[in-house]
Predict the structure.
Amino acid sequence: MVSHDDDNDPPSPQLPRHTATDRSSADTPRPNLPELKGRQKASRSKRQGTHKSLQWTAGWEAKGRAPYHDYVHKLVEAGWDNLKDVDEHMNQNSEDKDLVVSVIDILDNLEMKRRVDIRDVPALDEFLVNESREGVKVRLYMAEQRGKLSSAVMETLGANLRLDPRFFQWNIKGSNNLMSPADRHRAPFTSIGFTVLDPSTAKVTDTFFFRTTIYIQPDEVGDGWTGVILFNSHLKTDIFINAVVTPPPFNPLASMPPPVERRPHTFRELYLSGISFLKPEDMVKSPFYTIHLLFRLSRRCWSDVITAIREQDSRINGISEASVNHVEDIRRTFDVVKRGGSLGWTKSYSHEITATGEKLEEDFTHLLKQADFLWDSREKRAQVARRKAEARWNALTNAFTFVFVPITVISGIYGMNVYEINGSAPDIWQFFVATAIMDTIIVLALAVSNFAHIATRQKRTAGVKEIFSFALGRH
C-alpha cells in the first residue's frame, strides 16, 4: 500500500551524483538565483549535505544565467552543439503551466509513501534542498506540465540532482543526433513515446504524440536510486490503469479494490494509480520494473490507434485518412523494452521482474504483428483501389469508343453528301439511324466478349446486367 502525508556523441562532463546520505551536515552558502518567469526568487542561504559539493559557475550573475543554465551554455561554447536546443530553451524563460510534481518514496522497510504534490517551482526547490533521503531507498519524481518543460523546472531539477543535460535535450527535441546509438543505449535515461487518439478532433483516426523521459540515478552509497519521470503532456484519457494489470483472483472473503473515479485522467495520474499494484522490493531492485506500467500504457494506446484505423477502413471500405506508418515508432519502443530500459540501469532479477520483462516482449511482439498486418492490408486495399481506378478509366475509354467510333465511321461513309447540306440524297435521318445501329452492334460485341471472358476465366455464367454494365462502361 502507498501511504500519504497528512495533507494528503562526446561524453559529457560527469556531475556528482545524488546520494542517500543524511543532509544534516554543515551549511554551505548558496548564491541568489535570478527571478525566472513562473518562479519566485529562489534564493536560499543554506545548502546541506551533498549539495555542498555543487560548484556554482563563476560569473553567472553578471550574465543573467542561473548556474545549471550557465553550465549548459558553457558546454555549448566548448563544442557540445547537441545541447544548443536546451540552451536556447532555457534562454526563453518559459512558464511552468499547470506544473504538478508527485513524489513517491520507498522506505528502508519497503513501505511506499506518497508525498504531497508539488505545484510550483519554489516548492520543488524547497523540497529538493531540505527533504532528507535518510531511511529512503528509492525516491521517484513524476513531473507533468502543459507543453514543454519550463526553464525553471529544468534549472531546479538539473542543479539539485546533477542531471546530464542531454536528458533535457531528449525531452524537448528527441534523440536525433544527440549521441551515438551505443551511448544512447547505455545512458542513465531513456524515453517512451505515446501516440494516442486525439479527442480534440472530429476524425476518429487522428492521433496526438507526446514523449515521456525517464532518468535513473543510482545512489553513490547503498543500493538505492533516484528516478525522474517527465511527462510532456497534460492530455487526459478515459483509459484506466486496471485495464493493463491482472485483476485479483476471486475470493469471497477478500476485500475488493475500491471503485474508480469515472473521469479522464492524465498519464501521470494513471501511472500513480498503478503503483499500488507493484511490489516495493522489486521496485528497489529494478528501475525497469518500476516504470514497466508506462510501457503497458504505451502498448494499450498503440493498440487503440491500430483498432480505430482498422475499423474506420472497414467502415468506408477503403483507406481512411490515418497518420503515417507507426511500425517504426513501435519498434523503437520495443527495443527499449528488450534492453530493460537502459543498459546503464541497475539489473537485479527476481521471478516477478523476469516474468514482467517476458510478458512485455510478448505483448510488443504481438503489437508489431498487428501493425504489420494493418499496413499490409492497407497496401492491398490501395492496390485494389488502383486497379479499380484503372478499370474505371478503361470503361470510360470504352464508352467514348462506342459513342464516337460509329459516328466517325458513318461520317466517313456519308461524308457531306446529305440532302439538307447540298441537296443530294441521302436524308440526314438515315445518318442517325446508321449510327444507332452501329452503336448497338458494338455494345452487343462488347457484351458477348465479356460473357466469353467470364465463362473461360472464371468458369461461371455472367448475368445480363453484369455483361452489359461492362459494355456500357459502368464497371
